[in-house]
Design a protein that fits this description.
The chain has a 17-stranded mixed sheet that branches. The protein folds into two domains: about 160 residues, Diaminopimelate Epimerase, Chain A, domain 1 (Roll); about 160 residues, Roll (Diaminopimelate Epimerase, Chain A, domain 1). About 15% of the residues lie in helices and about 35% in strands. The protein has six helices and 17 strands.
Length: about 350
């Protein structure tokens, strides 16, 4: 495929991210050829991604690849690819629950799913972790309606609600909700909770790192000593989680926890792993909630949550993210019995993208 041929592309904001959505059939079947093409489409490597679609940040340098599902119990397969910004890499080692919000609408837009009236439900196999999400959204007259009155922090205005219910996310990347076999571990003198409810994460108290937890992303990113220490913690924790060498991947994520200050259940600062999230990802939020609910985890004593409530409002740098999560304990085993969130999506453009020539 040459740069002049062009590739059909739907560009969507999904949740608090945005990315390029492609039909699998429109991309090279060979993964190496596909990744080379996507680097050129997104304008990577370049801190500004000036010669491509990328928005100079990990949250806006994302790709969704979609096809009719090969499984009998789902409608479409969704492969998420994180594309580097100033580093030339494409990785499938994580899911993205924000781009997930656009998968159902994309499936309808491309004719992979026939829409119902007034709403459509799409069962999505998340290829990265072989887990399932069920998206429900408005399709009056069989057409996706992106408008609505749901506001999500980190996105201006309102849009149509997209309900996301998750199945089988607990341990989907590492094999267990608490993949080290413990509720807490000691890493580099810091007590951490390693947890995976769809996004392998390392939870830490901000105070244990000499932080308040209220710092803005720019402050945290400017702290070189903190960055170096967190990088070491991430590598060690990944080994404990059975993830091996993660130097070339973006997981596990690192999340600093502190007591809520704005009416939520807990406050967070999430690392991507170097840049700091301006909010928090869908699966990241579900993982934080599942990781602090059991008594004895590193963040449990920070949580302010009504007894028996599954509604969990997670504070982040630009507001709140509400999820419904429930965890049941049987002996020393923990089971996630509910994982759900509300997101929105918006169609930005539908057309043809032209990859830059190889450098």
């Amino acid at each position: 495929m040459t740069a002049g041929e062009g590739i059909r592309c739907l560009y969507l904001r999904g949740g608090t991210s945005k990315g390029a959505y492609f039909l699998a059939a429109d991309l090279p079947a060979d993964a190496a050829e596909r990744d080379d093409l996507l680097l050129r489409v997104m304008g990577t490597p370049d801190p500004r991604q000036i010669d491509g679609l990328g928005g100079a940040h990990p949250l806006t340098s994302k790709v969704a690849v979609v096809q009719t599902s090969e499984s009998g119990d789902t409608d479409v397969d969704y492969l998420f690819l994180q594309v580097g910004v100033d580093e030339a890499f494409v990785t499938d080692k994580q899911n993205c629950g924000n781009l997930l919000a656009g998968i159902g609408p994309f499936a309808v837009e491309r004719g992979l799913v026939v829409a119902d009236d007034p709403t459509t439900t799409v069962r999505i196999r998340m290829v990265n972790t072989d887990s399932v999400a069920i998206a429900t959204f408005a399709t009056p007259g069989g057409v996706v309606d992106y408008d609505g009155d749901l506001a999500i922090d980190g996105v201006p205005g309102t849009a149509g609600a997209i309900s996301l219910d998750f199945e089988g996310t607990a341990g989907s990347s590492t094999g267990a909700l608490f993949p080290t076999g413990h509720l807490t571990d000691e890493v580099d003198g810091i007590t951490v909770t390693c947890v995976d409810n769809g996004m392998p994460s390392v939870l830490m108290r901000a105070a244990d790192l000499g932080l308040s937890g209220a710092e803005n992303p720019d402050e945290l990113e400017a702290d070189a000593a903190l960055g170096d220490r967190l990088a070491g913690i991430r590598m060690h924790a990944a080994e404990l989680m059975g993830m091996g060498d993660v130097s070339a991947t973006t997981v596990p994520k690192l999340v600093l926890l502190s007591a809520p200050t704005a009416g939520g259940a807990i406050s967070t600062r999430s690392f991507l792993p170097k840049r700091v999230h301006t909010s928090i990802g869908v699966l990241g939020a579900l993982t934080v909630a599942a990781g602090v609910l059991p008594q004895g985890t590193v963040g449990h004593d920070l949580v302010e949550l009504a007894d028996g409530s599954a509604r969990f409002s997670i504070e982040h740098p630009t507001g709140h993210f509400d999820v419904d999560v429930a965890v049941e304990q049987t002996g020393d085993q923990y089971t996630v019995t509910r994982s759900a969130a509300l997101r929105t999506a918006r169609k930005i453009f539908d057309g043809t993208v032209f990859a830059r020539p190889r450098l």
